[in-house]
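INPUT
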Amino acid sequence: MSMASIDAGAARPFDSFVPQIYRVEQVCRELSDTVTLDLAPVSGPRPSFEPGQFNMLYVFGVGEVAISISGGRDGAALVHTVRDVGAVSGAIAKLTPGATIGVRGPYGTGWPVKAAEGSDIVIVAGGLGLAPLRPAIYEIFANRRRYGRVVVLFGSRNPNDMLFRHEIEQWRARLDVDIEVTVDHADADWRGNVGVVPKLIPRAPFDPHDTVALICGPEVMMRFTVSALRDAGVAAESIYVSMERNMKCAIGLCGHCQFGPTFVCKDGPVMRYDRIAHISAMREI
Amino acid sequence: MKNDGVKNLEQILQEHPFFAGAPVEEVKLIAGCARNHLFQAGEYLFREGGPADEFFLIRHGRVALEIAAPGRPPAVLETLGVGEFVGASWLIPPYRWSLDARAVELTRATGIDAVCLRGKCEADHDLGYAMMKRFLPALVKRLHTTRLQVLDVYGKH
Amino acid sequence: MATVSRGAVQTLLDVLAAARYQVIGPVMRDGAIVYEPVSHISDLPIGWTDRQEPGRYRLERRDDEALFGFTVGPQAWKRFLHPPAETLWTMRRGEDGVTIESPTDAAPRFAFIGVRACELHAIAIQDRVLAAGPYADVAYAARRRGAFIVAVNCGQAGATCFCVSMQTGPKADCGFDLALTELIDGDGQEYRHEFLVEVGSARGADVLEQIPHRAASDADMTAAATVVKRTTSQMGRHLETAGLKELLQENLDHPRWDDVAERCLTCGNCTMVCPTCFCTTVEDHSDLTGTSATRQRKWDSCFTMDFSFIHGGSVRKSARARYRQWMTHKLSTWIDQFGTSGCVGCGRCITWCPVGIDITVEAAAIRANPQPQPGRSHEE
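OUTPUT
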């Protein structure tokens, strides 16, 4: 309990509460309510990051929101895909090229892309959940020979609300990856699968005893996907989910993002399922 | 429609995921009611309101369960694929289909004559019970996934 | 160890003020003992004590003139080290781009007079939360380094105190610059009012040098030990901590949470008075012209509806969930996160709860009748 534990030398050289100023370089409208922004720092290089990490994005005078990085590590820009669901995300979704935006990060834990080498990989994305997984997909594709089977399962609301649709079609053209998509609702013009994404798991070609599963999407979808993977024989220690909770500081000091004994900002957002299995189905945790 | 020898059908049924682990005698009895089908893309396996005389086990392809409404394309409620069964209304009176089932792509399916099978189940309650035990979990699972669809998890709240 | 007279305490205040510390100590105001700037020992609540019960706090006159004859009031030292409101930065937008400035005022140097053992532990706990992680609160660390701490060993325990259960007192054992034990006894010719002084740091030793003192006698030290022993025996509450972390995390569906939810107003008083509660929120403000924006950090409470808000709604809507979050964090998940309990047994949450909810009673109720939630179906 000595005061020697307070050592300013241990603190970061910059103040972690202060955003770095970035400029919006490019805006791509993905869906009616979702955009992808390419952000470049006004000065200095952009920081390195792990797939699965997030930044706090700040709009002048409006506020900050946690958004996962959705693009690759090549290039000078930070890529974020944002859906308009509130005041800040709505303001971000309206930014135009040239606008300034504040960025704090990257924060949090990333997908175990490196640790999963040698295993099969099953990536299960639901809706906007494909965005935080996309950087992991890029990494895996770039190092394809380090993995066994690679399976990507993607569920959307309907065929018109399919994020990164053109990219998925390109991925599908690869001969070394299995991609299946499904939608919750469709009409007869849609010739693909209709049904929830866990339904795709029994038929997916992976070895449950040597697989790492990465899941991201609405919490209900993740929960039932985990259940289907467990039914298929995948161990809880091989399953990773990306959790989301209210964030204010994103650096473990404000207490908001607690999820049981974890802080989503520093023990997550990517969490190994066995560590949170006991609280994953509890209400209001 | 091909009509394979009964022995071939036994093998086909035994290997179908729906009958995984089923005792040989049970499969033999059911094979007696079975025949193979080939549906072209767009062909209907059955139509809403029609008699539920035959249900299907998909061997290859994809089948959409859909409901038609005037003025718009039919809504697809679910698609079913390899290993899944199509049609449950054959189990309950008045034995009428409640949905359309359409082959989305070329589909091979084993059809099981419901009248034949219902008769055999009435005569042999052990067989009847075994069929119920096989169908009910699959139906409950389907109800569960349908409920998840209804939740509309990707929608805005 | 040294012994100083009552008058020397005034000298202590003077020495600290002369060294440019903002001297903060206990004063009586609005019927409570709170922490405010002091310059004279007459500012202290001389001869007053507090009577605390669940949901009740009253000041009463003592029959002596003790300077520190009370326990703890509604405020904790966190209001100085981790202030209720703070500007983090100001952003300005002009023709030549956007600039950001953080406040550049030098960190204040506080001297805290009368810090209790439980409060020393609370400060150490907040040190671990705010300044020991990979992202430290630099401003907190600066205020902390600059703070001179004069601890006081409690001469009596309150009815809601349970520092003995939490092993945080009543004796201050480290984390202070100086620690005083008030010794009042005898009457008439025999009356004495002195303080045993224990030095806890080089800084403390320097200050002691500037105050008239004598070497403590064996009698002085025995008297001080007796004070501590008496206080130890007076604890008003007990909390059984053995296995408490697991007990609470295994009983998240216990009916007791429904029971407390019927009483809890979710007013958040407990979080305001608790010396370890650290949660904050941020507020973004901009001026009407849109050329400048500030971000303020403010105390927050897990009892507010907004605390756990994500798109779609708050994760913890019910009072049941919010009370459960507070109590399981304080007594259980805090240990997973920071290696110690979050509770120091000061009893403030019990005293200042308007409906008198008692954290020791709630924990005991669950312990008396555990109803662990079933494991998940795939749990191995």
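end of record. The interface with chain B takes residues 33, 85, 126-128, 155-157, 161, 182, 184-196, 198-199, 202-203, 217-218, 220-221, 224 of chain A (CB under 8 Å).
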